[in-house]
Amino acid sequence: MCDVLIIGGGLSGLQVAAGLISQRLKVVLLEARPRLGGRILGLPGVADEPLYDAGPAWVWPDLQPRMSRLLAALDLETFAQETQGRLILQGAGGRREEAAQTFASAPASMRVTGGLSTLVARLEAQLRSVDVQCDTVVTALACDGSGVCVTARCGSGVRRYRAPTVVVAVPPRLVAGWEFAPALPAEAQARLAAVPTWMAGHAKCIAVYPKPFWRAAGLSGQAFSQVGPLGEIHDASVPGHGQGALMGFFTWPHALRKERRERLVQDVCAQLGALFGAPAAVPTRIHIHDWAAEPFTATAADTRPLHEHPVYRPLSWRGTRWEGRLLFAGTEVAAEQGGYLEGALAAAERALAQIRGTMGP
Ligand SMILES: Cc1cc2nc3c(=O)[nH]c(=O)nc-3n(C[C@H](O)[C@H](O)[C@H](O)COP(=O)(O)OP(=O)(O)OC[C@H]3O[C@@H](n4cnc5c(N)ncnc54)[C@H](O)[C@@H]3O)c2cc1C
User: Fold this and answer.
1) Which residues contact residue 322 at a Cβ distance below 8 angstroms, ignoring those fewer than 6 apart?
2) In sequence order, which ranges of the chain are alpha helices (DSSP H)?
3) In CA terms, which of 18, 98, 100, 206 is 20 to 30 Å from 343?
4) Domain architecture of the chain: domains with CATH
5) pLDDT in tens, 70-85
6) Does this model's pTM top 0.85?
7) Burial zone of 308 (CB within 10 Å; 0-12 exposed, 13-18 middle, 19+ buried)
8) How many whole angstroms from its chain centre is CA 45?
9) Which atom of ligand 1 is nearest to 38's Cα?
10) Ligand 1 pocket mutation, candidates 39, 62, 309, criterion most atoms within 8 A of CB
């Protein structure tokens, strides 16, 4: 038995855990993957290569007060996304054009020095008093008069946990697939399943080069393509490391990526070469990370691309047996900036306030 059990060790679950460490509570955090961070993932480099962000890479500290405070508290610095130079456009017929103006957001998109996985490592280091259990896949929740019983798969075994309060910091669409006792009303289950998981259908590619050669040609590293495989490309080089890197989001949907799996790297290299010149076709390394193929992020419903940013809102169990026992965190239930890292922190803040409300300060 613990005081608070947190399910999901992404940014939101970690932030809930961090918010409880000063409260002398017995806190357990269950995470399905062998690592923490969820959608935040640094692709491991070789030798002294930097970690490239395979998930989120950008923050906007001027618009994201919680993220800004967290970065400062963890002693992390940011630098502006490189946008200097000309932009490449590739039309539907494959024709390449250059434009003088790059696309730069205002305020600027900022990257975190060391990559966002550094933030996860520093948060994790603070959680010494929390019992963090990775490789633990929650499959069922049962509620009785005194609390919640959580069933999880752990290797070939099954573990059971009990807590008066459970925080679910997992995308609602994944939660819809769990077993609930008493069973969730069909309408509540459908409501969970209808919440799209932000960016879950996407895949990201990182191509690494000996240096950012496109800069000498006056190019920003930014490109937008209507044919793909990559639809949006940015300079992902890490200052101070000498190497160059281009990061691209696939415009090809998951089904096509899967169908072309054997040739995907070749297809990407051919496109990079056509856009940025021959050296771009021969990266020293190339990584492709397909989030739609990750069972602890995406469901089959997420493989269909989203055409606009969904409106996310808090979910509650009001009026059901789960009220006060089961709390939601995670960016998909944020009241503001849902989908973004800031939303993950906003949802964690709300869950912490609810815990204080039920348990006292
Ligand atoms: C490619 C990509 C690019 C992005 N770019 C940006 C960006 O630039 N800026 C930005 O602000 N946001 C971006 N995002 C969104 C950002 O990643 C999310 O907002 C944020 O990481 C969500 O954190 P979370 O804790 O809510 O969810 P998650 O990170 O998804 O954490 C949920 C956790 O629950 C775990 N879990 C799942 N099922 C179970 C189970 N059954 N039992 C136990 N644990 C389970 C998962 O393994 C995971 O660790 C991007 C996302 C992707 C995929």
Assistant:
1) 143, 148
2) 11-20, 65-73, 116-125, 172-175, 186-193, 254-259, 264-276, 341-359
3) 206
4) 1-77+114-197+309-361 (3.50.50.60), 81-112+201-293 (3.90.660.10)
5) 999 999 999 999 999 9
6) yes
7) exposed
8) 19
9) 49
10) 39
